[in-house]
Design brief:
about 120 residues, mainly alpha, 6 helices, about 85% helix
Length: about 120
């Protein structure tokens, strides 16, 4: 957090982004588990979310559980596909896996939003 105090806040002030940073922090903190799990599962740069979790002081247990769910979900899915379809699926996974994961994640989030709006 010291680097944020020494450098980060000055950059935010210079670009007049302090308010935006605070808004992003509030949203990130509210949905930290979902954001970290999604980043762990999809090809979204996971390191960005780990750094953000530290910058926004996300609960460590929430961060660890979400990371385990997201990262292990991705590897379990790849393993299951190879187990079910054999080595022949490797080329398909290499070519289309990231796209499939992104589409699946978008559909999952849209589904949750629809359920939330209906209830």
């Amino acid at each position: 957090m010291e680097l944020m105090e020494i450098v980060g806040n000055k950059i935010l002030e210079f670009y007049d982004l302090t308010g935006t940073f605070k808004q992003v922090g509030e949203q990130f903190h509210e949905y930290a588990g979902l954001a970290v799990a999604t980043a762990g599962f999809t090809p979204i740069p996971y390191k960005v979310f780990t750094i953000a979790a530290g910058a926004f002081k996300v609960n460590f247990v929430v961060f660890v559980v979400a990371s385990i769910i997201g990262r292990s979900g991705r590897f379990v899915l790849v393993s299951a596909l190879i187990y079910i379809f054999g080595p022949a699926i490797k080329g398909f996974i290499d070519k289309y896996f990231n796209l499939m994961v992104i589409i699946f994640t978008i559909l999952l989030i849209v589904g949750f939003l629809i359920i939330k709006l209906l209830l």
